[in-house]
Amino acid sequence: MFTGIVAAVGKISTVHPLEDGVDAGVRLEIDAGGLPLADVGLGDSIAINGACMTVVAKTERAFSVDVSRESLNCTVGLDAPGEVNLEKALTLAERLGGHLVSGHVDGLGQVHRFEAIGESWELVIDAPQELGKFLAFKGSVVINGVSLTVNRVEDLAGVCRFSINLIPHTISVTTLKHLSAGSKVNLEIDLIARYVERMLSATTRMV
Questions:
Q1: Which of 41, 89, 96, 124 is deepest in the core (most CB within 10 A)?
Q2: What pLDDT does 140 receive?
Protein backbone atom coordinates (compact mmCIF):
# COMPACT_ATOMS: atom_id res chain seq x y z
CA MET A 1 0.00 0.00 0.00
CA PHE A 2 1.17 3.52 -0.85
CA THR A 3 0.07 7.15 -0.39
CA GLY A 4 0.83 8.66 -3.80
CA ILE A 5 3.30 11.10 -2.24
CA VAL A 6 6.45 10.75 -4.33
CA ALA A 7 9.52 10.31 -2.12
CA ALA A 8 12.16 10.75 -4.82
CA VAL A 9 12.75 10.90 -8.54
CA GLY A 10 14.96 8.01 -9.63
CA LYS A 11 16.16 6.87 -13.00
CA ILE A 12 15.88 3.61 -14.91
CA SER A 13 19.52 3.09 -15.89
CA THR A 14 19.34 -0.21 -17.74
CA VAL A 15 16.65 -2.50 -19.17
CA HIS A 16 17.53 -6.19 -19.59
CA PRO A 17 15.17 -8.71 -21.30
CA LEU A 18 14.54 -11.64 -18.96
CA GLU A 19 14.48 -14.09 -21.87
CA ASP A 20 14.08 -14.19 -25.64
CA GLY A 21 10.77 -13.65 -27.42
CA VAL A 22 8.03 -11.03 -27.64
CA ASP A 23 6.40 -12.27 -24.44
CA ALA A 24 9.49 -11.74 -22.30
CA GLY A 25 9.52 -9.36 -19.40
CA VAL A 26 12.44 -7.16 -18.36
CA ARG A 27 14.67 -6.50 -15.39
CA LEU A 28 15.06 -2.83 -14.57
CA GLU A 29 18.08 -1.46 -12.77
CA ILE A 30 17.07 1.79 -11.09
CA ASP A 31 19.21 4.53 -9.61
CA ALA A 32 17.24 5.41 -6.48
CA GLY A 33 18.22 9.09 -6.53
CA GLY A 34 17.31 10.56 -3.15
CA LEU A 35 15.31 7.52 -1.99
CA PRO A 36 17.04 5.93 1.05
CA LEU A 37 17.48 2.18 0.60
CA ALA A 38 18.96 1.23 3.98
CA ASP A 39 15.60 -0.11 5.21
CA VAL A 40 14.66 -1.80 1.92
CA GLY A 41 15.07 -5.57 1.72
CA LEU A 42 14.69 -8.13 -1.04
CA GLY A 43 10.99 -8.77 -1.59
CA ASP A 44 9.93 -5.29 -0.46
CA SER A 45 7.60 -3.23 -2.64
CA ILE A 46 8.43 0.08 -4.33
CA ALA A 47 6.03 1.99 -6.57
CA ILE A 48 7.65 3.03 -9.85
CA ASN A 49 5.57 5.60 -11.75
CA GLY A 50 2.60 4.28 -9.80
CA ALA A 51 3.17 0.57 -10.48
CA CYS A 52 3.97 -1.62 -7.47
CA MET A 53 7.12 -3.68 -8.09
CA THR A 54 9.14 -6.14 -5.99
CA VAL A 55 12.80 -5.53 -5.22
CA VAL A 56 14.87 -8.49 -6.46
CA ALA A 57 18.35 -7.01 -5.97
CA LYS A 58 19.84 -3.88 -4.40
CA THR A 59 23.02 -1.97 -3.76
CA GLU A 60 23.62 1.09 -1.60
CA ARG A 61 22.17 3.48 -4.20
CA ALA A 62 20.26 1.30 -6.68
CA PHE A 63 17.80 -1.56 -6.88
CA SER A 64 16.40 -3.94 -9.48
CA VAL A 65 12.89 -5.19 -10.22
CA ASP A 66 11.47 -7.71 -12.69
CA VAL A 67 8.55 -6.47 -14.80
CA SER A 68 6.36 -9.01 -16.59
CA ARG A 69 5.24 -8.55 -20.17
CA GLU A 70 1.65 -8.20 -18.86
CA SER A 71 2.71 -5.27 -16.66
CA LEU A 72 4.63 -3.69 -19.55
CA ASN A 73 1.53 -3.95 -21.73
CA CYS A 74 -0.61 -2.18 -19.12
CA THR A 75 1.74 0.65 -18.17
CA VAL A 76 3.98 3.34 -19.64
CA GLY A 77 7.46 4.47 -18.61
CA LEU A 78 8.78 1.07 -17.50
CA ASP A 79 10.34 -0.15 -20.73
CA ALA A 80 13.16 2.32 -21.39
CA PRO A 81 15.78 4.36 -19.50
CA GLY A 82 14.49 7.59 -18.01
CA GLU A 83 13.32 9.35 -14.87
CA VAL A 84 10.62 7.73 -12.71
CA ASN A 85 8.65 8.64 -9.59
CA LEU A 86 9.52 6.44 -6.60
CA GLU A 87 7.72 5.66 -3.34
CA LYS A 88 8.41 2.95 -0.79
CA ALA A 89 5.49 0.98 0.63
CA LEU A 90 3.54 2.64 3.44
CA THR A 91 4.11 1.64 7.06
CA LEU A 92 1.54 2.08 9.86
CA ALA A 93 3.87 4.58 11.54
CA GLU A 94 3.74 7.09 8.67
CA ARG A 95 1.38 9.95 7.87
CA LEU A 96 -1.13 9.37 5.09
CA GLY A 97 -0.33 12.55 3.18
CA GLY A 98 -2.09 11.57 -0.05
CA HIS A 99 -4.70 8.81 -0.16
CA LEU A 100 -4.68 5.00 -0.01
CA VAL A 101 -3.01 3.74 -3.19
CA SER A 102 -2.58 0.10 -4.17
CA GLY A 103 0.05 0.56 -6.88
CA HIS A 104 -2.11 -1.28 -9.42
CA VAL A 105 -2.47 0.66 -12.67
CA ASP A 106 -6.11 0.65 -13.84
CA GLY A 107 -5.53 2.11 -17.29
CA LEU A 108 -3.62 4.52 -19.45
CA GLY A 109 -4.61 8.13 -19.96
CA GLN A 110 -3.39 10.66 -22.50
CA VAL A 111 -2.48 14.27 -21.83
CA HIS A 112 -4.88 16.58 -23.66
CA ARG A 113 -3.34 19.82 -22.42
CA PHE A 114 -0.58 20.86 -20.03
CA GLU A 115 0.07 24.55 -19.56
CA ALA A 116 1.01 27.17 -17.00
CA ILE A 117 -1.83 29.18 -15.45
CA GLY A 118 -0.54 31.86 -13.11
CA GLU A 119 1.86 30.27 -10.63
CA SER A 120 0.38 26.80 -11.15
CA TRP A 121 -0.07 24.36 -14.02
CA GLU A 122 -3.25 22.83 -15.44
CA LEU A 123 -2.99 19.19 -16.46
CA VAL A 124 -5.90 17.89 -18.54
CA ILE A 125 -6.10 14.12 -19.07
CA ASP A 126 -8.30 11.99 -21.32
CA ALA A 127 -9.06 8.76 -19.43
CA PRO A 128 -10.63 5.61 -20.87
CA GLN A 129 -14.41 5.85 -20.82
CA GLU A 130 -14.71 2.84 -18.50
CA LEU A 131 -12.76 4.69 -15.79
CA GLY A 132 -14.94 7.79 -15.99
CA LYS A 133 -17.43 6.58 -13.38
CA PHE A 134 -14.62 6.48 -10.80
CA LEU A 135 -13.58 10.11 -11.35
CA ALA A 136 -15.38 12.83 -9.39
CA PHE A 137 -15.00 16.52 -8.62
CA LYS A 138 -12.66 16.88 -5.62
CA GLY A 139 -12.02 13.13 -5.71
CA SER A 140 -8.61 11.49 -5.78
CA VAL A 141 -6.69 9.97 -8.69
CA VAL A 142 -3.12 8.76 -9.14
CA ILE A 143 -1.14 9.89 -12.21
CA ASN A 144 2.26 8.24 -12.67
CA GLY A 145 2.34 7.48 -8.95
CA VAL A 146 1.33 10.97 -7.78
CA SER A 147 -1.79 11.43 -5.63
CA LEU A 148 -3.78 14.34 -7.06
CA THR A 149 -7.20 16.01 -6.68
CA VAL A 150 -9.63 16.19 -9.59
CA ASN A 151 -10.82 19.75 -10.28
CA ARG A 152 -13.17 19.13 -13.21
CA VAL A 153 -14.71 16.13 -14.97
CA GLU A 154 -16.32 16.04 -18.40
CA ASP A 155 -17.76 12.96 -20.12
CA LEU A 156 -17.11 13.10 -23.86
CA ALA A 157 -17.56 10.66 -26.72
CA GLY A 158 -15.22 7.76 -25.98
CA VAL A 159 -13.25 9.41 -23.14
CA CYS A 160 -13.61 11.02 -19.73
CA ARG A 161 -11.67 14.30 -19.64
CA PHE A 162 -10.56 15.55 -16.24
CA SER A 163 -8.42 18.42 -15.02
CA ILE A 164 -5.79 18.66 -12.30
CA ASN A 165 -4.15 21.74 -10.78
CA LEU A 166 -0.44 21.25 -10.08
CA ILE A 167 1.34 23.53 -7.64
CA PRO A 168 4.99 24.46 -8.27
CA HIS A 169 6.21 22.07 -5.55
CA THR A 170 4.61 19.07 -7.27
CA ILE A 171 6.15 20.09 -10.58
CA SER A 172 9.60 20.41 -9.01
CA VAL A 173 9.68 17.08 -7.13
CA THR A 174 8.05 14.71 -9.65
CA THR A 175 8.46 13.69 -13.28
CA LEU A 176 5.14 15.31 -14.21
CA LYS A 177 7.15 18.30 -15.42
CA HIS A 178 8.15 16.24 -18.48
CA LEU A 179 4.58 15.70 -19.71
CA SER A 180 3.21 17.33 -22.85
CA ALA A 181 0.12 16.99 -25.04
CA GLY A 182 -0.07 13.42 -26.30
CA SER A 183 1.96 11.89 -23.45
CA LYS A 184 0.64 8.61 -22.05
CA VAL A 185 0.26 8.32 -18.26
CA ASN A 186 -0.46 5.57 -15.74
CA LEU A 187 -3.80 5.99 -13.95
CA GLU A 188 -5.07 4.44 -10.72
CA ILE A 189 -8.58 5.27 -9.59
CA ASP A 190 -9.56 5.77 -5.95
CA LEU A 191 -9.59 2.55 -3.93
CA ILE A 192 -12.84 3.40 -2.14
CA ALA A 193 -14.59 4.23 -5.43
CA ARG A 194 -13.58 0.81 -6.74
CA TYR A 195 -15.29 -0.99 -3.84
CA VAL A 196 -18.39 1.23 -3.91
CA GLU A 197 -18.88 0.45 -7.61
CA ARG A 198 -18.51 -3.29 -6.91
CA MET A 199 -21.01 -3.23 -4.06
CA LEU A 200 -23.58 -1.25 -6.03
CA SER A 201 -23.28 -3.44 -9.12
CA ALA A 202 -23.53 -6.64 -7.02
CA THR A 203 -26.61 -5.33 -5.21
CA THR A 204 -28.28 -4.44 -8.51
CA ARG A 205 -27.71 -7.96 -9.87
CA MET A 206 -29.18 -9.54 -6.72
CA VAL A 207 -32.41 -7.51 -6.79
A1: 124
A2: 95
